[in-house]
Give the backbone structure.
Amino acid sequence: MGSDNWNWHSDFDYDRWVKLPVPGPHPLARYKHGAVVVDEKLYIVGGSRNGRYLSDVQALDLRNLSWSTVKLKSQSESDNVKDGRSLEVFPATSGHSMVKWGNKLLLLGGHSKDTRETVTVHFIDLESLVSGVMDATGKIPVARGGQSVTLVGSKIIMFGGEDKHRRLLNDVNVLDLETMTWNVAETKQTPAPRFDHTAAVHVDRYLQIYGGCSHSTFFNDLHVLDLEMLEWSQPQIQGNLVPPRAGHGGVCIDDKWFIVGGGDNKSGALETLVLDMSTLVLSVLTNVERKDPLASEGLTISSALVDGEQFLVAFGGYNGNYNNEVYVMKPKPKDLKHPKIFKSSAAAAAAASVTAAYALAKSESLDFPAIESSKPKVDLSVEVSALKEEKKALESSIAWVKAEKSTVKTKLDEYHETHADLLKELHSVQGQLAAEKSRCSSLEAQISDLQTRLSSMESLEQKVQALRSQKSAPEHDTSAKRQSSGGAWRWMAP
């Protein structure tokens, strides 16, 4: 079937998922694995199935549609044998992240039987097929799974996840791959802790986080981290409103961020989403049926260039059943028309800065003195027209930003007025409390005086009782004597 499948990619409809007719044996169905495409080959590493972690490495040749198992060697062949028993070169792991760096696949995080307390960086050399661990120094983050990992230049940005004690995380850790040194990024306005989200980076500066979940809540929010200012923001997404999701896959092609699958532990997400990272407009590209393998949690989405054609490649996932089929989609080429005016304040600001820089560059090029040349003059009417359109877009964006600024200023003034009223009320209450405190102190002094007087009265009463006792005693003695004397006289009488 290899010859029949050789040109499977030559005739394809745009924006439609198709299951590839891959013949022969397939890898074990799974989810929460790692996946990446290198040189027209889809590599699948690890994952989970029926509560069991997997350690195999599989490769799908996207040209002839054939699966093969990748046999790895350890850094030292002696490391692979202990007491005559063969050991796993790559440990069974699930919920890890995988990126390509040079000729290596790097695998970070994930849950396994490993007892290490910090994140381990495993590597697979695609040329020698040697696998091992890359030693790192610095502030190594705590071990975790379900994190997001994004490659920005020579640095890896890791966000969030869930540690082995089920503690949710929202820290940002940076690994410099050239020095293999970890650092913690101290950020402001950090999003809520989460795992099983997806992340992407725009123009090597803005890290974007979408969705994910905590132990009780599923998210459909977008958070953006400025990697230079180290400050988070939560811009409003324009376009379609979609249900929350976790365990979805995501991949970027140019400015488009494709998000597929995921779910909420009850049902899978049916929408294939595309987020324009420049305009922050979210669109539903297509939908699938319920129980479709693409409506799964823990699936992976990769970008592949096959014979010059761009494709999305989906594999694995779980939606009541584990999946091991391969699905592909051919997205429409990038629209080269002029960008639309942004609708959100954050996007408007970004548009204004980008458009301003573009217009400035053009104006500077047009401001140079004319140089006489023998070459024929070039008609610049098209460029001038485009520049005017850019100017209109810039003016519109600036007007939008000014309107937003005015609204924010009004709200800020209202806040200051409310704050002043509350401050006056607080001072009044503090005065009343001071008066009540003084009154309480006076009452306490009176109570103390009364207690002293009461003690004195009790002592006086005791003295009175003693005097009464003394007074009654002599009277009793006299009466007795009288009775005794009378009796004696009666005895002596004739």
User: Anything to note?
Assistant: The two ends are 163 Å apart (CA to CA). Helices lie at 2-5, 345-366, 381-492.
